[in-house]
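tool_log.txt
---
The assistant was asked to compare two proteins side by side. It first ran the structure predictor on the initial sequence, then on the second. Raw inputs and outputs are pasted verbatim so the downstream comparison step can read them without reformatting.
(1)
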Amino acid sequence: MSLEITDECINCDVCEPECPNEAISMGPEIYVIDPNLCTECVGHFDTPQCMEVCPVECINKDPAKPETQDELMAKYEKLQAGK
C-alpha cells in the first residue's frame, strides 16, 4: 500500500528529498504523499526512506490504499518507463 503522512508531521523537510519517486510534496498544512507515485521505495531501496528519516514517525502505510509488493513493483516499472 502507499504511505501517508499523519497530522503529527512537524514539517521538518527531511522526507521530501529522500523520496526517489518525488511522491512527497508540501500540502496545505503538512507534507503529503501522492499515492500514484509512492512505491514504498520498491525498486530503489529495501525500506521506505521517508519512514527511515522521519524524526516523529508520522509516516505509515495507508490502509485505504492497499497494494501488494508485485503491484508496487509494477508501479515502479511504469514510473521508470515514463522517465
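(2)
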Amino acid sequence: MALMITDDCINCDVCEPECPNGAISEGEEIYVIDPNLCTECVGHYDEPQCQQVCPVDCIPLDPSRVESKAQLMDKYHLITAA
C-alpha cells in the first residue's frame, strides 16, 4: 500500500526530506504523498521513514492503494532505474 497524509498534518516539514523517493510534497493545505512514488520505503529502509519522524502520527496506509511487498519492490526498481 502507498501511504497517505491525513488532515491531522501540522505542516511541520519533517517528513518531506526523509522520503527517499521524493513522494512527499507540500499540498494546498497539508503535505501530500504521490502514491505513484511511494514504496513505503521498500528497497531503501525496513520501515517507512516518514512515519518514523511524524510527530502527530498522521501517515497511515492508504486503503485505496493496496500493494504487496513484491509490487512495492517492483515500483522501487522502476523508480530507481529512471
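---
observation on (2): Strands lie at 24-26, 31-33. Residues 16-81 form a domain with the Alpha-Beta Plaits fold (CATH 3.30.70.20).
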